[in-house]
Amino acid sequence: MSLTDVFIRRPVLAVVVNLFLLLLGAIAFVQLEEREYPKVEDTSLTVATYYPGADAEQVLSYVTSPLQEVFASVEGVDYLSSSSSDGISLITVHLEPGYDANAAMAEMTSVIAPVKNEFPAEVEYPEITKDTASIGAGMFLQAFSDTYDLQQLTDYLERVINPEIMTLPGVGSVSTYGAREYAMRLWLDPVQMAAFDISVREFHDAITQSSFQTPAGELESGLVVTKVKANTELNAVEEFENIVIRQDGNGRVQVKDVARVVLGAADTSSSVFFKGERGLSLGVSASPGVSPLALSRQVRAKLEELESRLPEGVEVGVSFDAAESIESSMTEVNKTILEASLIVLMVVFLFLGDIRSVIIPVVAIPLSLLGNIFIMFVLGYSINLFTLLSMVLAIGLVVDDAIVVVENIHRHIDEGMKPFDAALKGAREIAMPVVSMTLTLAAVYAPMGFLQGMSGEIIREFVFTLTGAVILSGLVALTLSPMMCSRLLKAGNASRFSRWLDDRFNRLQQGFKTRLAGAMNQRPVVVVMLVVMLGTIPPLVLLSKSELVPIEDIGWLNAMFHVPATASLEYMERESDALEDIMFGMPEYGGYSFRYVNVFNDRSSMIAFRAVPWDERERTANEIFPEFSAKLSEVPGLLITPFIVNRVPGSMGGLPVQLVIKTTQDYAPLSQVADNLLAEALGSGLFVVGLSDLRFDKPELEIVIDRYKAAQLGVSIADIGTALTTLLGENEIGRFTLYGENYKIIPQAMDATRTSSDWLNHYHVRTGSGAQVPLGTVIETRLVSKPSFLNQFQQQNAATLSFLQAPNVSMGEAVDLLDRKAAELLPEGYYIEYEGDSRKFKEEGAALYVVFGLALLSIYLVLAAQFESFRDPLVILTSVPMSVCGALVFLVLGFATMNLYTQVALITLIGLITKHGILIVEFANKLQATGMSRSEAAVEAAAVRLRPILMTTAAMVLGVVPLLLATGAGAISRFQIGLVISTGVLVGTICSLFVVPVMYSYLAREHRSPTTDGGQIPATA
Question: Can you list the residues of the chain whose pLDDT is less than 50?
Fold first, then answer.
């Protein structure tokens, strides 16, 4: 007794087995995590080290280089990149995919300590933060107040809001932008200092010796211990003002005599605006592994809880939430699943013409999809856009096996058998093809388990989710479907519509049979057609535009603008006002915008506006973008880079194409090489924006100390350095406590005394004789141009060229051009690498073609084992090149690009289209055993299997129609994957109905018995 017989004879067992699938799926469903993409652990660690008052060269020499040397030896490090600028060193440590970031962070912390001891005293301790590429700042919050100034608002956020948000389990970090953190600002007046004969060194020492934090210890007497606290710290403005700098016979000189003391802000170099109103912003990043959806729910719930506790006049809300577009996209995909299910139901009814027959395959949809949720749970997957898309495709697949079973049993009933007997016989006949088709699809996706990196993580969840659904559909088709056929299908009870439909299919079958017979008479022509289509695949692949993922409409349009290094914050705010006015005038402006002005202290700013909801506008973001760019370009004097944020899985942000030129040469020749390559690239017309991060655009007043003269006068070099650092820098020289928190003490010359180099003559230093001389006595100055940033890549000097492609220019075209230009222009000793999305494109792109080949090999071997033949699988696989060719034509025509989504779809096509060949070859082999020749068997098998093949094709093609009609968030990706599947299956089916029988007649082995073949024993392969 076969397995199918058991379930036909024991209907309760069949029902229980399938209900158990539903139960497991329902339990797993409530526990699965929702996220945008599969979990991609592509983590980097950022090390920020502050060196107040130092220029970029000093930061690179004294901080960045020593740290990079020790970080390079840390286990799990893939590569290093760094940026050194005035006062700060930023090192990004990129880890190998999947490496434990916590382990790397612990090792980095341990190697920092010995290096820190060699740093100059002013260097602050390095801070390590963890960045997960797939996350970034998932949310931005806005804060306003009409009762608090920015310093008070900053203090409230830092004390109350930030700690509350940081306690949430999904939050990794919270950064405040536009902050005005409290500081005790000591504004020195050099003129008054000279009048009172006070040197900078004396002022500095008076502050540090008058206010410091120290634990005094304790007193112990017998059984009593008394804590001792020394009041060595000053905290109020009046206390600092009254510090005595010098007291002698000429009187007392206090701080208030030579400086103005205010409780001010530590940093005033950046600002944030929302809809034109000044405020503060909080960037909230998720912990590694936490999705933007989970982050959004946690933060929004916390904000609702905090709302009632906010002080009067303070508002805190959400300005940007990545979860909004993700939820919209997932909602659209969920609607697509329902729409596809209804379409498939109608297709099955139109092909079978009997509502009873429709029920049987339709039942397979919820059983397979919900049961597959349990498989996803066991594998540790999540409900994300890729797994949901795989379920959309699965709807057309999961009914295939049931359709084949129903059609075969229905055929036996039409031939006069009783439903129960027809179910037994039909299920036995079709069991092997069902198992073959299921194993075939599983074989296609087996190599995906070996794919590494970002693509591996994403594709594995997509294909294994699809495979799980198909395997379960095979289980349903062999357990529940035959039993339902034996109970639901009735002999001689066909409706008029059903009889009419059967008549039309019989006519179609006969017409097809006639045309196929004609094709069999022209077999060489069919073979030539197959060879031509096979030969066109490589050029079609090369002609297809390629990119990592298509640019989606997430409902925001953005622009970055750069100003000269000499520009002030006031200038940047004024220019950003003009850009914001342009955004207000866009037809799709949704009533909300924000500006981040110089928040990264690099003389760049970002502006963005939210478009009206997708269903309320006629244009997509990609269609709005040209007009937006054109209007921004009308603003004079700014280098503006408009862009659309593309949430690429594993992306670290920035412009899409980033080329790194690295060398051991100095930055000056590197800058020339970079500028030459940048000019050539922009001249190609492929890019609308091109930027170099190595620009000698920062004027720097270089001070040369006359050491001989200083020695003559007895002026200490250290005193010269202290004078310059204290008067011109913003160096912390101590801490004070305010409301339980400690803040910086920062001395600096008044703004009015730092306007030009002439003021250096009003700064004084003390000589060996005790007198003071102007600083200009022992120094000379010269104006030079220096880079604002000194960047390195893998510990070599580097310049990064960042590009935004012109419309309709793919990343593949851009990267190919840059590779060619670099090969032509770069001198010896200069090398290139890629960063950002373009690096992932280079790393991930070729891997999928290898997987495609492995999938073909895998499916061939599985089919060879199933059919006990090395020739039959070749016949079945002849349908693959035609299907792939049909899909690639639409890529070449520009309807889609070769990207992560379409590559997944192309691999999926292998499994989809080979199912047709399996049905034909398996039945033809049986017909040969009855005495038919290979040609006769091929024609008859194709004719008999025509109806289930057309039915499954229609279910698959029409089932993805909702993807082709997709709108809103994520629509482009859904359209492209639907386009490849529908065109590939449609073209592949039409061609395979003729090509597979022809190739069968050439290649298939003989299956006739010796008595029907002239007494000859047939070959086995």
Answer: 133-136, 1011-1021
Listed residue (703, 670, 658) closest to 839, CA to CA: 658
Asked if 653 and 837 count as a contact pair (C-beta separation under 8 A), the reply is no
Of the candidates 986, 667, 967, the residue with the CA atom closest to the CA atom of residue 798? 667
For the CA atoms of 67, 73, 77, 78, what is the dihedral angle to 10 degrees?
100
Distance CA 699, CA 785 (A): 5
Q: Quote the pLDDT of residue 1019.
A: 36
Kindly report, as residue ranges, where domains of CATH 1.20.1640.10 are found in the chain. 1-31+353-493, 506-543+869-1008
Q: CB 15: neighbour CB atoms within 10 A?
A: 15
Cα–Cα nearest to 476, from 394, 561, 588: 394
CATH of domain 43-132: 3.30.70.1430
Give the 3-state secondary structure percentages of the chain, helix then strand then coil, rounded to 5: 55, 20, 25
602 forms bridges with which residues in the sheet?
none
Write out pLDDT tens, residues 472-491.
888 888 889 889 888 887 77
pLDDT for residue 132 = 57
The confidence score (pLDDT) of residue 322 equals: 82
Domain 183-265+698-786 maps to which CATH number in 3.30.720.120, 3.30.565.10, 3.40.50.300, 3.30.2090.10? 3.30.2090.10
Query: Which of the following CATH numbers is that of domain 1-31+353-493: 3.40.50.2000, 1.20.1640.10, 1.10.540.10, 3.40.50.1980?
Result: 1.20.1640.10
| Percent with pLDDT over 70 in the chain | 95
Note the pLDDT tens digit of each residue in 558-609.
888 888 777 888 888 888 888 888 888 888 888 888 888 887 777 788 888 8
Which token pair is 57? 């060269």
